[in-house]
Amino acid sequence: MFSFKKFSIEQDRCAMKIGTDGVLLGAWTPIENNPFSVLDIGAGTGIIALMLAQRSNAEQIDALEIDEDAYEQATENFENSPWNDRLFCFHAGLDEFIEEPEDEYDLIVSNPPFYSEDYKSNSEQRDLARFQDAMPFEKLIEAAALLLSENGIFSVIIPFKEEENFLALANQFELHPIKITRVKGTPTTEIKRSLLAFSRNEIPNFPIDELIIEIARHQYTPEYIELTKDFYLKL
Asked: What does each of the 235 residues of the chain score in pLDDT, given as a tens digit?
């Protein structure tokens, strides 16, 4: 059980445990368009959808999860939350979900599974399987372009080294960046993640900034505390 200020999450049956990436995306995602409908692609525990339920007045928050155990756990986490009447999880893959799209969404978020170079087992087969399990960015962007409402926002967290590629792919689908934040663990480490938000409307001179998480072990920066203080119990 992982407890936040306003909700708790069970994660014993999820392969993707709660991590900084999901919390960052849930806290950072722009909601100034006052979304009525939200879609979380690849829900895992349901953490991002729950954070957006807390932050926004969205009345329809849908999540998509292909893994059966994770789907069941996300559903339970939704049901046990204060916003259970606004949250719903679909047990489906992205391909299946977009075959007959019924709704457009004002906000689409995803913390997509990606292959990490830090992860190497002694089995080439296993590494390959893990690599192929990762959701291809092109498929994700194509789905977002299909499902996003006219003034909708699409928001993701990805490895920084993939940022240029992701921006180029998004541009092919006429999705334009409106905000970029690059994340570093400490002031001296290299940039590890990119938080990217897109819309259908091009914005000149959109904000690009950097977020540092810690000054030293468990000594968080004021910026990180400001971003996550509504969620973490100890901040």
From this structure: 889 999 999 988 887 778 899 999 999 999 999 999 999 999 999 999 999 999 999 999 999 999 899 999 999 999 999 999 999 999 999 999 999 887 899 999 999 876 555 555 666 665 555 554 557 899 999 999 999 999 999 999 999 999 999 999 999 999 999 999 999 999 999 999 999 999 999 999 999 999 999 999 889 999 999 999 999 988 7
**R_g (Cα) of the chain, nearest Å:** 17
| Contacts of 97 by beta carbon, 8 Å cutoff, 6+ apart | 64, 90, 143
Q: What is the pTM of this model?
A: 0.91
Helix residue ranges, H only, the chain: 20-28, 47-55, 68-79, 94-99, 124-133, 137-147, 163-172, 222-228
- DSSP track, 163-175: HHHHHHHHHHTT-
Q: What is the DSSP letter of 81?
A: S
Distance CA(180)–CA(28), nearest Å, equals: 10
> Is 83 buried (19+), middle (13-18) or exposed (0-12) by CB count in 10 A?
middle
Cα distance between residue 65 and residue 60, in whole Å: 16
Helix (H/G/I), strand (E/B), else coil: 84: coil
Question: How many whole angstroms separate alpha carbon 157 and alpha carbon 181?
Answer: 9
Instruction: Report how far residue 193's alpha carbon sits from residue 123's, in angstroms, rounded to the nearest whole number.
Output: 27
The residues, any chain, with a CB within 8 Å of residue 62's CB and separated by 6 or more, are: 37, 38, 39, 40, 49, 88, 89, 90, 103, 105
